[in-house]
Amino acid sequence: MEILLEANAGRGKRIMNKIWIDLTDISVWNGHHTGTQRVVYELAKRYYGRKDVEYFVFNPKKNTFHSYDFTSVLDRVEAPVKVEPDEAVPERPPVLRHLVARAYHRSPETIKKYATKHRREQIKRIYRKGKSVIRKNKSVFIQPDTPSLSFTSSDTLLVMGKPWDHPSFMETVRREKPVQGYKLIQVVYDLIPVFFPHLFGLPLFRPYTQHMFETAAISDGLLAISKSSMRDMERFCDKLLIDCPPIEVIRLGDDFTGKVSRKPLLSSLEPGNFILCVGTVEVRKNHQLLYMAYKQGIAEGKRMPKLVIVGGKGWYTGDVMYAFEHDPDMKDLVYIGGRTDEELEWLYQNCLFTIYPSVYEGWGLPIAESLARGKLCISSNTSSMTEISGKLIDYFSPYDSRECLNAIMRYTNTEVLESKELEIKNEYKLHTWDQTYNQVDKILAKRNI
After folding, report:
1. Of 108, 129, 330, 353, most Cβ neighbours within 10 A?
2. Bridge partners, residue 188, by sequence
3. Element (H, E) at 110
C-alpha cells in the first residue's frame, strides 16, 4: 500500500493511506451469516491485522461513525461449536413463544374460548412485528469511550454491507465527504428492488432506489458481485442520465466446507432420498414453482423425491406456505424451516442434489455452496445464476413448471446424477475467499488507495 509524504501541520509528517471497513451490519449480528453478512465477514477477516486497515460502525441515532474492534466479531463467529457430529439435539422453542403457549394452555376455558383462530393469527402478526422492531432497534453497539470519527483525505471507506437499512448513513457521507475528502468504495449486490419492485415489499422501493442513486452520485468506485449486477447498475445510471462510477466485477468465495455436520430431526429423512432448496422463503425465491412442479409430477404418477426447504420467512409467502403445509399431497413429502449451520451442512452432504428456482439474483450463493461440496444444483436460467458455473449445471425457466419437473426427474436417475457429479468434481473450479480478497485488494491498489 502506497505511503504518501504529506505536510501535516507544517511538519512533513508521514501519512499512510488507510482503508476503513464498515462493520455496521455484523457488529451485533448473532445469527448465521448469509448473503451480505458473509461477504462483510469473510473479507473483513482477511484484512484483519494490516497496519493500513481499521474498522468502523455507523450510529444511526447520532449519525456518527465510530471505530470498532474487529476482534469482538472474530471471537464471536469463530467460537468453537461444542456439538458432537452425530448427536441429534432437538431445537429449543424461542423463549417468548414458549411462555405464551404455556400461559394459553394454563388459562381457564372461559378465557380460551375467546382465542379464536382469527385472534391467534393477529397475535402471531403482532409477535412477528415486535420481533422485527426489537431486531432493528438493536441497531449498533458502540463500544464504550469510542469518540466519533472524522475521516481524512488519506482515508478510503470500504462499504460492503446494507447501508440502505440506515438511510442517514448515505446522507451523512454525502454531507461529510466533500469536506473531509475521503474516498468511498461500495459493493453492489443487485438492483432487484428497483427493477422488480413486485418481488419485495412496497416500502423498500423508495429507500433502496434513493440509496442506489446516492451510491452512483458519490462513490469513487463500485464492486459488482456479478456481470448481471454490473449491467443493471449501468442501466440504472443510464435511465437517470447520470454517470456511473468506475465499476468492476468481483467473484464471491464459495469455500464453505469443513463445518461440523449434524443430522436434523426430520422424520423419514435419510441420505440420498431428498433434494434441497436453500434460501429465504419469499416470492422472489419462487417456491411457488416447486409447488406446481411437484403437483404436476404427483398428478402424473411420478415418484417425487422428498423436498427440504431451508430458510426463514420473507416477503409474500403466505399462500405457498399454506399450500405446502395443508395440501394432503405434500404430507410427509416437504419439510420447511430454518436449520442450524451444522444441520445445513448435513443436508448439503446427504441430499440427492439441490434446486434453486429464484426469479432473479445478484449472485446465487446456494448454487456455489452446492457445487463447492460436489453436489449438483439445477437452477433458474436468469440474471447472474448462469455465471456461476456456465454449462456445467442444468437450468430451467423460473416460469415453467414443466421444465422444472423434467429437470428434477432427470437427476433422480442414479446413473445420470453420478455422471454429472463426476463432471462437477473434475471441472468445477472452487473460488476461495482468499481469491476474492486478492481481487478487491488489487482493485483498491490500482486506484492508488
Report:
1. 353
2. 224
3. helix 109-112
Task: Measure the CA–CA gap between 334 and 342, rounded to whole angstroms.
Answer: 20
- The 10 Å Cβ neighbour count of residue 416 is 13
Read off the pTM.
Answer: 0.81
- The DSSP 8-state label assigned to residue 336 in this structure reads E
Calpha distance 433→252 (Å, rounded): 7
Strand 306-310 to 53-59 pairing? unpaired
Residue 10 DSSP one-character state: T
- 116: amino acid identity, one letter: T
274 close to 304: Cβ distance less than 8 angstroms:
no
- Decide: 24 and 36 in contact? Cβ < 8 Å: no
Q: Would you state the cell numbers that stand for residue 385, as one nine-digit string?
A: 445464476
d(CA 352, CA 412): 8
Q: Which residues have C-beta within 8 Å of that of residue 56, sequence separation ≥ 6?
A: 20, 21, 22, 23, 65, 66, 67, 68, 149, 157
Residue 197 contacts residue 330 (beta carbons within 8 Å): no
- Per-block mean pLDDT, blocks of 10 residues, the chain (449 long): 38 65 86 80 96 95 94 80 45 49 56 60 58 46 73 96 92 96 97 94 90 96 98 97 97 78 83 94 95 97 96 86 92 84 91 98 94 96 96 96 98 97 95 96 84
Structural contact between residues 264 and 258, judged by C-beta atoms closer than 8 angstroms:
no
Contact 293, 408 (CB under 8 A): yes
For the chain, report the end-to-end CA distance as a whole number of angstroms: 7
Are residues 358 and 398 in contact, defined by beta-carbon separation less than 8 angstroms? yes
| Residues 382, 287: Cα–Cα separation, whole Å | 16
